[in-house]
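Notes continue from the previous slide.

Worked example: a multi-chain complex. Inputs as given:
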Amino acid sequence: MTSTVSASGLSLHYGGTRALDDVSLRLTPGVTGLLGPNGAGKTTLLRVLATAVPAQRGRFTVLGHDPGSTRGRQEVRRRLGYLPQTPGFHPDFTAFEFVDYVAILKEINNRAARHREVRRVLDEVDLGDVRGKRVKKLSGGMRQRVALAAALVGDPGFMVLDEPTVGLDPEQRMRFRELIARAGEGRTVLLSTHQTEDVAMLCHRVLVMAGGRIHFDGTPAELTARAAGRVWSSAERAPDAKAGWRTGAGTFRNVGDPPPGAELLDPTLEDGYLLTLDGHGLAVTA
Amino acid sequence: MTWHVSEEDLRAYARTELAAPMLWSADTHLAACARCRAALAEVSEPVDAGWERLDAELDAPRPGLFEGLLVRIGVADHTARLLAATPVLRRSWLAAVVFLLVTTVGVVYSAGSPTLFLALAPLLPLAGVALSYGPALDPTYEMAVVAPVHGFKLLMIRTLAVLAAGLGLNGLATLALPDYGLRALAWLLPALALTATGLALTPRFGPVLAPSLVGGAWVALIAAADAAADGGPLIPFTAAGQSAAAAVAALAVGLLYLARDRFDVFHRSAV
Protein backbone atom coordinates (compact mmCIF):
# COMPACT_ATOMS: atom_id res chain seq x y z
CA MET A 1 0.00 0.00 0.00
CA THR A 2 1.29 3.49 -0.83
CA SER A 3 2.46 5.42 2.21
CA THR A 4 0.70 8.69 2.97
CA VAL A 5 3.14 9.86 5.62
CA SER A 6 6.83 9.10 5.47
CA ALA A 7 9.63 10.31 7.70
CA SER A 8 13.35 9.65 7.73
CA GLY A 9 15.98 10.44 10.32
CA LEU A 10 13.86 12.70 12.55
CA SER A 11 15.88 13.87 15.53
CA LEU A 12 15.16 16.38 18.26
CA HIS A 13 17.09 17.04 21.45
CA TYR A 14 16.00 19.17 24.40
CA GLY A 15 19.09 20.08 26.35
CA GLY A 16 20.71 16.72 27.01
CA THR A 17 17.55 14.69 26.39
CA ARG A 18 17.08 12.86 23.10
CA ALA A 19 13.36 13.24 22.57
CA LEU A 20 13.62 11.83 19.03
CA ASP A 21 16.62 9.88 17.85
CA ASP A 22 16.81 9.11 14.13
CA VAL A 23 13.15 8.13 13.74
CA SER A 24 12.02 6.84 10.37
CA LEU A 25 8.55 5.57 9.56
CA ARG A 26 5.97 5.10 6.85
CA LEU A 27 2.25 5.31 7.51
CA THR A 28 -0.56 4.01 5.34
CA PRO A 29 -4.34 4.61 5.50
CA GLY A 30 -5.99 3.08 8.57
CA VAL A 31 -5.21 3.41 12.26
CA THR A 32 -1.59 2.96 13.33
CA GLY A 33 -0.96 2.65 17.06
CA LEU A 34 1.99 4.26 18.81
CA LEU A 35 2.83 2.52 22.07
CA GLY A 36 5.48 3.46 24.57
CA PRO A 37 6.10 4.30 28.22
CA ASN A 38 6.05 7.85 29.59
CA GLY A 39 8.98 9.85 28.25
CA ALA A 40 9.38 7.55 25.23
CA GLY A 41 9.06 10.49 22.82
CA LYS A 42 5.53 9.71 21.58
CA THR A 43 4.13 13.20 22.12
CA THR A 44 7.23 14.80 20.61
CA LEU A 45 6.92 12.59 17.52
CA LEU A 46 3.23 13.50 17.18
CA ARG A 47 3.99 17.20 17.57
CA VAL A 48 6.70 17.04 14.93
CA LEU A 49 4.41 15.20 12.48
CA ALA A 50 1.64 17.72 13.29
CA THR A 51 4.10 20.52 12.37
CA ALA A 52 3.85 22.08 15.84
CA VAL A 53 7.55 21.52 16.57
CA PRO A 54 10.24 21.42 13.88
CA ALA A 55 12.72 18.54 14.01
CA GLN A 56 16.38 19.48 14.26
CA ARG A 57 17.35 16.81 11.74
CA GLY A 58 15.54 14.65 9.21
CA ARG A 59 12.52 15.31 7.05
CA PHE A 60 9.04 14.04 6.44
CA THR A 61 6.14 14.42 4.05
CA VAL A 62 2.40 14.24 4.65
CA LEU A 63 0.18 13.38 1.69
CA GLY A 64 2.93 14.50 -0.64
CA HIS A 65 3.64 17.84 1.07
CA ASP A 66 6.94 18.71 2.73
CA PRO A 67 6.43 20.95 5.79
CA GLY A 68 10.02 22.17 5.54
CA SER A 69 8.83 25.35 3.82
CA THR A 70 6.20 27.81 5.03
CA ARG A 71 3.96 26.94 2.09
CA GLY A 72 4.43 23.19 2.55
CA ARG A 73 3.66 23.48 6.26
CA GLN A 74 0.47 25.32 5.39
CA GLU A 75 -0.55 22.56 2.97
CA VAL A 76 0.12 19.87 5.58
CA ARG A 77 -1.95 21.78 8.14
CA ARG A 78 -4.85 22.01 5.70
CA ARG A 79 -4.90 18.21 5.63
CA LEU A 80 -4.32 17.64 9.34
CA GLY A 81 -6.66 16.77 12.19
CA TYR A 82 -4.97 17.07 15.58
CA LEU A 83 -6.24 16.01 18.96
CA PRO A 84 -3.67 17.02 21.60
CA GLN A 85 -3.07 15.12 24.82
CA THR A 86 -4.94 17.70 26.90
CA PRO A 87 -7.22 19.60 24.56
CA GLY A 88 -8.06 23.03 25.92
CA PHE A 89 -11.43 24.70 25.57
CA HIS A 90 -12.64 28.24 25.93
CA PRO A 91 -14.91 27.74 28.93
CA ASP A 92 -17.77 29.94 27.82
CA PHE A 93 -18.10 28.44 24.36
CA THR A 94 -20.77 25.90 23.56
CA ALA A 95 -19.76 22.71 21.76
CA PHE A 96 -21.00 24.27 18.52
CA GLU A 97 -19.11 27.54 19.11
CA PHE A 98 -15.90 25.74 19.99
CA VAL A 99 -15.94 23.56 16.87
CA ASP A 100 -16.95 26.64 14.87
CA TYR A 101 -13.91 28.44 16.29
CA VAL A 102 -11.63 25.58 15.20
CA ALA A 103 -13.30 25.60 11.77
CA ILE A 104 -12.36 29.28 11.46
CA LEU A 105 -8.78 28.42 12.40
CA LYS A 106 -9.00 25.90 9.55
CA GLU A 107 -9.87 28.74 7.18
CA ILE A 108 -13.54 27.90 6.60
CA ASN A 109 -14.70 31.50 6.55
CA ASN A 110 -18.03 31.16 4.75
CA ARG A 111 -20.55 31.14 7.56
CA ALA A 112 -23.13 28.83 5.97
CA ALA A 113 -20.56 26.29 4.79
CA ARG A 114 -18.82 26.41 8.16
CA HIS A 115 -22.01 25.81 10.12
CA ARG A 116 -22.88 22.87 7.88
CA GLU A 117 -19.45 21.40 8.57
CA VAL A 118 -19.77 21.96 12.32
CA ARG A 119 -23.11 20.18 12.36
CA ARG A 120 -21.69 17.34 10.28
CA VAL A 121 -18.74 16.64 12.58
CA LEU A 122 -20.78 17.01 15.76
CA ASP A 123 -23.28 14.51 14.34
CA GLU A 124 -20.37 12.24 13.40
CA VAL A 125 -19.28 12.01 17.04
CA ASP A 126 -22.90 11.68 18.22
CA LEU A 127 -23.03 15.08 19.89
CA GLY A 128 -25.67 16.65 17.68
CA ASP A 129 -28.12 16.81 20.58
CA VAL A 130 -25.84 18.73 22.93
CA ARG A 131 -24.25 21.17 20.50
CA GLY A 132 -25.84 24.13 22.31
CA LYS A 133 -24.42 23.11 25.71
CA ARG A 134 -21.43 24.89 27.18
CA VAL A 135 -18.30 22.76 26.98
CA LYS A 136 -17.59 23.18 30.70
CA LYS A 137 -20.91 21.49 31.48
CA LEU A 138 -20.17 18.39 29.40
CA SER A 139 -18.71 15.17 30.83
CA GLY A 140 -15.05 14.29 30.24
CA GLY A 141 -16.01 11.77 27.57
CA MET A 142 -18.21 14.27 25.78
CA ARG A 143 -15.50 16.92 25.91
CA GLN A 144 -13.09 14.46 24.36
CA ARG A 145 -15.62 13.86 21.59
CA VAL A 146 -15.95 17.62 21.04
CA ALA A 147 -12.16 17.72 20.60
CA LEU A 148 -12.36 14.80 18.15
CA ALA A 149 -15.10 16.63 16.25
CA ALA A 150 -12.82 19.67 16.04
CA ALA A 151 -10.05 17.44 14.67
CA LEU A 152 -12.45 16.06 12.04
CA VAL A 153 -13.34 19.51 10.68
CA GLY A 154 -12.43 19.81 7.02
CA ASP A 155 -12.26 16.04 6.50
CA PRO A 156 -8.49 15.78 7.08
CA GLY A 157 -6.49 13.07 5.34
CA PHE A 158 -4.08 12.66 8.25
CA MET A 159 -5.15 12.58 11.89
CA VAL A 160 -2.88 12.71 14.92
CA LEU A 161 -4.52 11.59 18.17
CA ASP A 162 -2.47 11.87 21.37
CA GLU A 163 -3.75 9.51 24.08
CA PRO A 164 -7.41 10.28 23.46
CA THR A 165 -8.73 7.49 25.69
CA VAL A 166 -6.87 8.56 28.85
CA GLY A 167 -9.21 9.34 31.73
CA LEU A 168 -12.28 7.80 30.10
CA ASP A 169 -14.32 5.13 31.86
CA PRO A 170 -14.64 1.73 30.10
CA GLU A 171 -17.95 2.57 28.44
CA GLN A 172 -16.71 5.94 27.20
CA ARG A 173 -13.52 4.28 26.01
CA MET A 174 -15.45 1.70 23.97
CA ARG A 175 -17.54 4.46 22.43
CA PHE A 176 -14.47 6.51 21.63
CA ARG A 177 -12.82 3.50 20.00
CA GLU A 178 -15.81 3.16 17.69
CA LEU A 179 -15.37 6.79 16.67
CA ILE A 180 -11.65 6.37 16.06
CA ALA A 181 -12.31 3.26 13.96
CA ARG A 182 -14.83 5.26 11.92
CA ALA A 183 -12.32 8.12 11.56
CA GLY A 184 -9.73 5.66 10.29
CA GLU A 185 -11.85 4.58 7.32
CA GLY A 186 -10.05 6.01 4.29
CA ARG A 187 -7.75 8.19 6.41
CA THR A 188 -4.31 7.84 7.92
CA VAL A 189 -4.63 7.99 11.71
CA LEU A 190 -1.70 7.89 14.12
CA LEU A 191 -2.96 7.01 17.59
CA SER A 192 -0.69 7.39 20.58
CA THR A 193 -1.82 5.34 23.56
CA HIS A 194 -0.76 3.56 26.72
CA GLN A 195 -3.56 1.03 26.28
CA THR A 196 -2.61 -2.10 24.41
CA GLU A 197 -6.36 -2.85 24.14
CA ASP A 198 -6.71 0.27 21.99
CA VAL A 199 -4.12 -1.11 19.60
CA ALA A 200 -5.53 -4.65 19.62
CA MET A 201 -9.03 -3.41 18.80
CA LEU A 202 -8.28 -0.59 16.37
CA CYS A 203 -4.93 -0.77 14.66
CA HIS A 204 -3.69 -2.50 11.55
CA ARG A 205 -0.14 -1.53 12.49
CA VAL A 206 1.71 -0.67 15.65
CA LEU A 207 4.91 1.21 16.45
CA VAL A 208 6.66 0.80 19.82
CA MET A 209 8.80 3.71 20.99
CA ALA A 210 11.22 4.05 23.87
CA GLY A 211 14.09 6.45 24.47
CA GLY A 212 13.19 8.50 21.41
CA ARG A 213 13.57 5.54 19.02
CA ILE A 214 11.20 3.16 17.32
CA HIS A 215 11.90 -0.40 18.46
CA PHE A 216 9.09 -2.19 16.66
CA ASP A 217 7.14 -1.54 13.49
CA GLY A 218 4.71 -4.21 12.36
CA THR A 219 1.24 -5.63 12.77
CA PRO A 220 -0.33 -6.26 16.20
CA ALA A 221 -0.17 -10.01 15.42
CA GLU A 222 3.58 -9.73 14.81
CA LEU A 223 4.04 -7.87 18.10
CA THR A 224 2.05 -10.56 19.89
CA ALA A 225 4.11 -13.27 18.19
CA ARG A 226 7.28 -11.82 19.76
CA ALA A 227 6.07 -13.29 23.04
CA ALA A 228 5.24 -16.76 21.68
CA GLY A 229 6.82 -19.36 23.95
CA ARG A 230 7.95 -16.65 26.40
CA VAL A 231 4.90 -16.38 28.66
CA TRP A 232 4.36 -18.88 31.43
CA SER A 233 2.44 -19.45 34.60
CA SER A 234 3.95 -20.26 38.01
CA ALA A 235 2.75 -20.60 41.57
CA GLU A 236 5.51 -18.31 42.89
CA ARG A 237 7.12 -15.17 41.50
CA ALA A 238 9.71 -16.20 38.89
CA PRO A 239 12.93 -14.36 39.78
CA ASP A 240 14.34 -14.46 36.25
CA ALA A 241 11.23 -13.13 34.51
CA LYS A 242 11.52 -9.84 32.63
CA ALA A 243 8.10 -8.97 34.02
CA GLY A 244 5.62 -10.79 36.18
CA TRP A 245 2.43 -10.16 38.08
CA ARG A 246 -0.08 -12.03 40.17
CA THR A 247 -3.31 -12.75 38.30
CA GLY A 248 -6.81 -12.92 39.71
CA ALA A 249 -6.47 -16.72 39.93
CA GLY A 250 -3.60 -16.27 42.40
CA THR A 251 -0.88 -17.58 40.06
CA PHE A 252 1.89 -15.50 38.51
CA ARG A 253 1.94 -14.64 34.83
CA ASN A 254 5.56 -14.27 33.79
CA VAL A 255 7.13 -12.85 30.65
CA GLY A 256 10.71 -13.59 29.65
CA ASP A 257 12.72 -16.75 29.13
CA PRO A 258 10.77 -19.62 30.72
CA PRO A 259 12.50 -22.32 32.75
CA PRO A 260 12.44 -25.89 31.35
CA GLY A 261 9.07 -27.56 31.77
CA ALA A 262 7.22 -24.31 32.49
CA GLU A 263 3.48 -24.15 31.81
CA LEU A 264 3.37 -21.92 28.72
CA LEU A 265 0.48 -19.52 28.16
CA ASP A 266 -0.92 -17.91 25.01
CA PRO A 267 0.80 -14.57 24.51
CA THR A 268 -1.08 -11.28 24.27
CA LEU A 269 -0.20 -8.00 22.60
CA GLU A 270 0.79 -6.65 26.00
CA ASP A 271 3.29 -9.48 26.49
CA GLY A 272 4.89 -8.68 23.13
CA TYR A 273 4.97 -5.00 24.05
CA LEU A 274 6.63 -5.67 27.41
CA LEU A 275 9.29 -7.86 25.82
CA THR A 276 9.97 -5.23 23.19
CA LEU A 277 10.46 -2.64 25.91
CA ASP A 278 12.86 -4.90 27.78
CA GLY A 279 16.07 -3.02 28.30
CA HIS A 280 14.37 0.39 28.02
CA GLY A 281 13.51 1.12 31.62
CA LEU A 282 10.85 -1.57 32.02
CA ALA A 283 9.98 -2.65 35.55
CA VAL A 284 6.66 -4.46 35.78
CA THR A 285 6.24 -6.69 38.79
CA ALA A 286 3.37 -6.94 41.21
CA MET B 1 -45.55 41.77 11.05
CA THR B 2 -44.18 45.29 10.90
CA TRP B 3 -41.63 44.58 8.17
CA HIS B 4 -40.71 42.00 5.55
CA VAL B 5 -37.43 40.94 4.01
CA SER B 6 -36.85 42.85 0.78
CA GLU B 7 -36.73 40.89 -2.48
CA GLU B 8 -33.12 41.91 -2.97
CA ASP B 9 -32.18 40.52 0.45
CA LEU B 10 -34.21 37.36 -0.22
CA ARG B 11 -32.29 36.79 -3.43
CA ALA B 12 -28.99 37.34 -1.59
CA TYR B 13 -30.23 34.96 1.12
CA ALA B 14 -31.08 32.28 -1.44
CA ARG B 15 -27.61 32.65 -2.93
CA THR B 16 -26.15 32.32 0.63
CA GLU B 17 -24.59 35.74 0.15
CA LEU B 18 -26.59 37.74 2.71
CA ALA B 19 -24.19 39.01 5.38
CA ALA B 20 -24.70 39.18 9.13
CA PRO B 21 -26.37 40.90 10.99
CA MET B 22 -29.07 41.16 8.27
CA LEU B 23 -28.70 37.41 7.85
CA TRP B 24 -29.71 36.80 11.47
CA SER B 25 -32.66 39.14 11.14
CA ALA B 26 -33.77 37.34 7.98
CA ASP B 27 -33.39 33.92 9.65
CA THR B 28 -35.51 34.95 12.61
CA HIS B 29 -38.09 36.64 10.43
CA LEU B 30 -38.40 33.78 7.95
CA ALA B 31 -39.06 31.34 10.75
CA ALA B 32 -42.17 33.33 11.68
CA CYS B 33 -43.37 34.83 8.37
CA ALA B 34 -45.15 32.62 5.83
CA ARG B 35 -45.32 35.45 3.32
CA CYS B 36 -41.54 35.89 3.22
CA ARG B 37 -41.01 32.12 3.12
CA ALA B 38 -43.26 31.97 0.07
CA ALA B 39 -41.37 34.87 -1.50
CA LEU B 40 -38.09 33.08 -0.73
CA ALA B 41 -39.37 29.93 -2.40
CA GLU B 42 -40.15 31.94 -5.54
CA VAL B 43 -36.67 33.45 -5.77
CA SER B 44 -34.77 30.35 -4.66
CA GLU B 45 -33.15 28.03 -7.20
CA PRO B 46 -33.05 25.36 -5.97
CA VAL B 47 -35.44 25.77 -3.05
CA ASP B 48 -33.98 22.89 -1.01
CA ALA B 49 -30.60 24.53 -0.58
CA GLY B 50 -32.21 27.62 0.93
CA TRP B 51 -34.28 25.56 3.35
CA GLU B 52 -31.32 23.48 4.33
CA ARG B 53 -29.36 26.63 5.09
CA LEU B 54 -32.26 28.20 6.97
CA ASP B 55 -32.51 25.06 9.04
CA ALA B 56 -28.78 25.21 9.77
CA GLU B 57 -28.90 28.88 10.72
CA LEU B 58 -31.87 28.44 13.02
CA ASP B 59 -29.98 25.67 14.70
CA ALA B 60 -26.77 27.65 15.21
CA PRO B 61 -26.38 29.40 18.56
CA ARG B 62 -26.68 33.16 18.69
CA PRO B 63 -23.37 34.93 19.30
CA GLY B 64 -22.71 36.47 22.71
CA LEU B 65 -23.00 40.17 23.51
CA PHE B 66 -19.39 41.06 22.73
CA GLU B 67 -19.27 38.97 19.55
CA GLY B 68 -22.60 40.35 18.33
CA LEU B 69 -21.41 43.89 19.00
CA LEU B 70 -18.27 43.31 16.92
CA VAL B 71 -20.35 42.04 13.99
CA ARG B 72 -22.68 45.02 14.24
CA ILE B 73 -19.76 47.45 13.96
CA GLY B 74 -18.62 45.71 10.79
CA VAL B 75 -16.17 43.02 11.96
CA ALA B 76 -16.48 39.83 9.85
CA ASP B 77 -18.25 37.11 11.81
CA HIS B 78 -15.29 34.70 11.67
CA THR B 79 -12.94 37.42 12.98
CA ALA B 80 -15.45 38.26 15.70
CA ARG B 81 -15.40 34.63 16.88
CA LEU B 82 -11.58 34.62 16.94
CA LEU B 83 -11.73 37.74 19.11
CA ALA B 84 -14.43 36.29 21.36
CA ALA B 85 -11.92 33.57 22.21
CA THR B 86 -9.37 36.14 23.39
CA PRO B 87 -9.32 35.91 27.19
CA VAL B 88 -8.34 39.53 27.87
CA LEU B 89 -11.23 40.89 25.83
CA ARG B 90 -13.59 39.46 28.40
CA ARG B 91 -15.51 41.59 30.86
CA SER B 92 -13.42 40.64 33.90
CA TRP B 93 -10.19 41.91 32.35
CA LEU B 94 -11.73 45.10 31.00
CA ALA B 95 -13.42 45.79 34.36
CA ALA B 96 -10.04 45.39 36.12
CA VAL B 97 -8.42 47.85 33.70
CA VAL B 98 -11.22 50.40 34.18
CA PHE B 99 -10.92 50.08 37.97
CA LEU B 100 -7.15 50.56 37.81
CA LEU B 101 -7.43 53.60 35.59
CA VAL B 102 -10.18 55.22 37.68
CA THR B 103 -8.08 54.69 40.81
CA THR B 104 -5.00 56.11 39.12
CA VAL B 105 -6.84 59.19 37.87
CA GLY B 106 -8.11 59.70 41.42
CA VAL B 107 -4.55 59.53 42.76
CA VAL B 108 -3.38 61.96 40.06
CA TYR B 109 -6.04 64.46 41.13
CA SER B 110 -4.98 64.28 44.77
CA ALA B 111 -1.23 64.39 44.01
CA GLY B 112 -1.46 67.19 41.43
CA SER B 113 0.89 65.46 38.94
CA PRO B 114 0.10 63.13 36.00
CA THR B 115 3.36 61.15 36.40
CA LEU B 116 1.79 58.06 37.96
CA PHE B 117 -0.82 57.84 35.21
CA LEU B 118 1.78 58.37 32.48
CA ALA B 119 4.00 55.67 33.97
CA LEU B 120 1.19 53.12 34.42
CA ALA B 121 -0.82 53.66 31.23
CA PRO B 122 1.79 52.17 28.82
CA LEU B 123 1.96 48.97 30.86
CA LEU B 124 -1.73 48.11 30.42
CA PRO B 125 -1.70 47.51 26.63
CA LEU B 126 1.58 45.58 27.04
CA ALA B 127 0.00 43.31 29.66
CA GLY B 128 -3.22 42.97 27.65
CA VAL B 129 -1.43 41.86 24.50
CA ALA B 130 0.84 39.51 26.46
CA LEU B 131 -2.19 37.87 28.04
CA SER B 132 -4.00 37.39 24.73
CA TYR B 133 -1.63 34.80 23.25
CA GLY B 134 0.63 32.03 24.45
CA PRO B 135 0.61 28.46 25.68
CA ALA B 136 0.03 29.34 29.33
CA LEU B 137 -2.90 31.65 28.69
CA ASP B 138 -4.69 30.44 25.59
CA PRO B 139 -6.34 27.07 26.28
CA THR B 140 -6.49 26.27 22.57
CA TYR B 141 -2.90 27.31 21.85
CA GLU B 142 -1.83 23.82 20.77
CA MET B 143 -4.72 23.47 18.32
CA ALA B 144 -4.24 27.02 17.03
CA VAL B 145 -0.53 26.51 16.32
CA VAL B 146 -1.15 23.56 13.97
CA ALA B 147 -4.10 25.23 12.24
CA PRO B 148 -3.65 26.59 8.72
CA VAL B 149 -4.33 30.15 9.89
CA HIS B 150 -0.93 31.77 10.34
CA GLY B 151 0.02 32.21 14.00
CA PHE B 152 1.27 35.70 13.22
CA LYS B 153 -2.03 36.67 11.62
CA LEU B 154 -3.93 35.41 14.65
CA LEU B 155 -1.55 37.31 16.92
CA MET B 156 -2.02 40.52 14.95
CA ILE B 157 -5.83 40.24 14.94
CA ARG B 158 -5.83 39.83 18.71
CA THR B 159 -3.16 42.45 19.26
CA LEU B 160 -5.05 45.08 17.30
CA ALA B 161 -8.27 44.32 19.18
CA VAL B 162 -6.57 44.39 22.58
CA LEU B 163 -4.67 47.55 21.65
CA ALA B 164 -7.90 49.21 20.50
CA ALA B 165 -9.59 48.31 23.78
CA GLY B 166 -6.57 49.22 25.93
CA LEU B 167 -5.74 52.46 24.17
CA GLY B 168 -9.43 53.38 24.11
CA LEU B 169 -9.74 52.97 27.87
CA ASN B 170 -6.49 54.86 28.42
CA GLY B 171 -7.82 57.59 26.13
CA LEU B 172 -11.03 57.87 28.15
CA ALA B 173 -8.97 58.14 31.32
CA THR B 174 -6.91 60.89 29.65
CA LEU B 175 -10.10 62.86 29.06
CA ALA B 176 -10.52 62.95 32.82
CA LEU B 177 -7.26 64.92 33.07
CA PRO B 178 -8.06 68.04 30.98
CA ASP B 179 -5.81 70.29 33.10
CA TYR B 180 -2.69 68.71 31.66
CA GLY B 181 -3.57 69.23 27.98
CA LEU B 182 -1.47 67.25 25.49
CA ARG B 183 0.96 66.28 28.27
CA ALA B 184 -1.63 63.78 29.43
CA LEU B 185 -1.22 61.93 26.10
CA ALA B 186 2.49 61.32 26.61
CA TRP B 187 1.73 57.66 27.48
CA LEU B 188 0.69 56.79 23.92
CA LEU B 189 4.08 56.42 22.18
CA PRO B 190 5.66 54.58 25.13
CA ALA B 191 2.63 52.24 25.14
CA LEU B 192 3.18 51.40 21.47
CA ALA B 193 6.93 51.02 22.00
CA LEU B 194 6.52 48.69 24.99
CA THR B 195 3.85 46.55 23.27
CA ALA B 196 5.82 46.20 20.02
CA THR B 197 9.06 45.45 21.89
CA GLY B 198 7.34 42.85 24.08
CA LEU B 199 5.99 41.08 20.99
CA ALA B 200 9.29 41.31 19.10
CA LEU B 201 11.12 39.65 22.00
CA THR B 202 8.49 36.91 22.46
CA PRO B 203 10.00 34.42 19.98
CA ARG B 204 13.29 34.66 21.89
CA PHE B 205 12.19 34.88 25.50
CA GLY B 206 8.67 33.48 25.46
CA PRO B 207 5.25 35.05 25.98
CA VAL B 208 5.66 35.51 29.74
CA LEU B 209 9.31 36.51 30.15
CA ALA B 210 9.46 38.93 27.20
CA PRO B 211 6.69 41.31 28.38
CA SER B 212 7.90 40.94 31.96
CA LEU B 213 11.40 42.06 30.94
CA VAL B 214 10.02 44.95 28.93
CA GLY B 215 7.67 46.03 31.72
CA GLY B 216 10.48 45.77 34.26
CA ALA B 217 12.77 47.85 32.06
CA TRP B 218 10.07 50.51 31.78
CA VAL B 219 9.57 50.65 35.54
CA ALA B 220 13.35 50.91 36.04
CA LEU B 221 13.55 53.69 33.46
CA ILE B 222 10.77 55.64 35.15
CA ALA B 223 12.42 55.20 38.56
CA ALA B 224 15.77 56.41 37.18
CA ALA B 225 14.14 59.35 35.41
CA ASP B 226 12.27 60.24 38.58
CA ALA B 227 15.51 60.24 40.55
CA ALA B 228 17.19 62.44 37.93
CA ALA B 229 14.26 64.86 37.52
CA ASP B 230 14.57 68.19 39.17
CA GLY B 231 10.93 69.13 39.50
CA GLY B 232 10.38 69.07 35.70
CA PRO B 233 8.73 66.35 33.58
CA LEU B 234 10.37 62.93 33.48
CA ILE B 235 12.63 62.33 30.48
CA PRO B 236 10.34 59.75 28.78
CA PHE B 237 7.61 62.37 28.65
CA THR B 238 9.73 65.11 27.12
CA ALA B 239 10.03 65.71 23.35
CA ALA B 240 13.31 63.78 23.26
CA GLY B 241 11.82 60.89 25.21
CA GLN B 242 8.80 60.75 22.94
CA SER B 243 11.04 60.69 19.84
CA ALA B 244 13.02 57.84 21.35
CA ALA B 245 9.79 55.94 22.08
CA ALA B 246 8.66 56.40 18.46
CA ALA B 247 12.02 55.11 17.19
CA VAL B 248 11.90 52.07 19.50
CA ALA B 249 8.35 51.32 18.38
CA ALA B 250 9.32 51.47 14.69
CA LEU B 251 12.38 49.28 15.25
CA ALA B 252 10.40 46.73 17.24
CA VAL B 253 7.68 46.54 14.58
CA GLY B 254 10.40 45.80 11.99
CA LEU B 255 11.92 43.07 14.16
CA LEU B 256 8.49 41.61 14.83
CA TYR B 257 7.78 41.39 11.11
CA LEU B 258 11.10 39.62 10.51
CA ALA B 259 10.28 37.09 13.23
CA ARG B 260 6.72 36.46 12.02
CA ASP B 261 7.28 32.82 11.01
CA ARG B 262 8.41 31.95 14.53
CA PHE B 263 4.85 32.43 15.76
CA ASP B 264 3.85 29.51 13.53
CA VAL B 265 5.38 26.80 15.72
CA PHE B 266 5.39 26.03 19.43
CA HIS B 267 7.44 28.27 21.58
CA ARG B 268 9.97 26.15 23.44
CA SER B 269 8.30 27.03 26.76
CA ALA B 270 5.29 25.01 25.56
CA VAL B 271 7.26 21.88 24.67
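Summary box: The longest helix of chain A spans residues 111-124. Chain A touches chain B through 45 residues (CB under 8 Å).
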